[in-house]
Amino acid sequence: MPPPTVPFFLTSTTLAAAAAKPQRPGPPSPPAQKQQPREARDGSRDACASYTARMRLNPQLALRLFDHLLRSGADPDHVAYALALGRCARGRDRRAAAQLHAHAAKRGAASHRRVCNGLIHAYAVCGSLLDARKVFDRGHEGDAVAWNSLLRGYAAAGDVNALREFFVGMQARDTVSWNTIIAWCVENGEYEEAIAVFREMLASMECLPDRVTLVSVISAITYLGALAQGLWAHAYVCRKGIEVEERLSSALINMYSKCGCIEGAVHVFENLGAQMNVDTWNAMLAGFTANGCSEKALELFARMEITGLVPNKITFNTVLNACSHGGFVEEGMGCFERMTKVYGIEPDIAHYGCMVDLFCRAGLFDKAEKMIQMMPMKPDAAVWKALVGACKTHRNFELGRKAGHMLIEAAPNDHAGYVLLSNIYALDGNWTGVHKVRKLMLDRGVQKVPGSSSIEIDGVIHEFISGDKSHSSKEDIYEMLSEMCQQLKVAGYVPDTSHVLLDIDDEDVKESSLALHSEKLAIAFGLISTAPGTPIRIAKNLRVCGDCHNAVKLLSKIYGRCIIVRDANRFHHFREGSCSCGDFW
């Protein structure tokens, strides 16, 4: 008999009736039937065992099978309750969990350890932390599963104080406990805190990190651009013999790529062997693309197709980005067409955005506008942002103003749209337009994010804000900054004050403003803090301006340094007076 469509126990009357069934008084059994109750109990246990076995094999049908178990007249045991509660947790079904709780309490099964753990987990996942805590406080403090379930509940709820207090008060913390805290830090942007917790985990010697731990920690390192810490994490993986499977390999490739060490990413990728899957190929493709190696990305994509591995949407998004950044217009158009005709993948907004960016970077604004018009969906902010950015670069002010207003309409709370449109007006000398845009930004309460750059020195992250003079090493930094400016002038560098988008006439003030851009401050600190010839790696939250791009090219030649800057858009590898991204910034 197949399970019913609607779970039987979801109606409170049925559940109550089923729970009360054993307590109903019945007629006395005749003498000849003395063995019947035992046989009935054996039959009930057999039926329950049969249903729990089916629940294990079909966890998605656990609630329906539990319903059928009740219909059969058998008594559910603690295993059946636990499996049904697991389904409640996966489905975020608090109502069903509460009904199971009531049913188990009436049957005397709610005090069983496994049922309690299932209740705590289900309530915590559903956000009912008060209910989860009530069950937990009934004497299950020594159970690691109960502790971790409630810890995850606090993490999901985002209650920082309760989460930390509960974690500190845990009687015994295992790998799952530490992973929960580290993952929470990463998900909430507390990257340095995630690394600090990882160090505390190692120092506590309570347990050993596993692959899940390393994936979270490497993700935090990736965001910070802390290559030295990333190298240590990779060495730890090798030293401890941790298997580098798909997720960990992708995390390592991503880390090396986003720290500007593409050689490290290639080393990890080429040594994976049979562990390669679409995700690892995509990670390597994205690494080449972000580091200005568009040709290598296209070569790798061709190699991927030869292996017979089927690319997905992310693959084509990455390849189209490579074509866009590398200026391969024909190749990009071919990939876009092949995606649909060969692989049957319908382009989404990201793919159309890549094509718009491809045409815009090449200055093909007619084709870009045509692509926007033929899109089957409404253009999003990314599409308009690509168009406005290209209009700024190619000084197409008329189209830039039009696209800028569309960008603000698409993303009214994003400061980038206002800043880009303001830049368009400023470059055109239209200061009235600049003031109108900035007033609109002020009226809507949208604030511009200040430019900041960070650099890792001896495992410590140092952050610099554009125009900020409060760094502890400011005297040494500004002395180095002054030397840099003098060396640049000797090399023939002339500050491009068109990038100072302020309505002021004093060129000296404009040049001073450019000299205090965060990436230049970070480079000055890197020059005085590292040995000659050491690569300087910087992560910036915004896009590198054109003046800084030109200045850093010369600085890499003057000081004989490889300077790698990861900005909001891509990587810039400056070496011997040139950049991996060419003259387009």
TrEMBL record:
Intervals holding PPR repeats: 143-173, 174-204, 277-311, 312-347, 348-378
Pfam families: DYW_deaminase, E_motif, PPR, PPR_1, PPR_2
Transit peptide is among the record's keywords: yes
Biased amino acid composition, Basic and acidic residues: 36-45
Highest taxon of the lineage: Eukaryota
Keywords on record: Repeat, Transit peptide
GO molecular function: RNA binding; zinc ion binding
Region described as Disordered: spans on this chain: 15-46
Keyword Acetylation part of the UniProt annotation: no
Domain DYW: 492-585
PANTHER family for the chain: DYW DOMAIN-CONTAINING PROTEIN, PENTATRICOPEPTIDE REPEAT-CONTAINING PROTEIN
Protein name listed in UniProt: DYW domain-containing protein
Organism encoding this protein: Oryza rufipogon
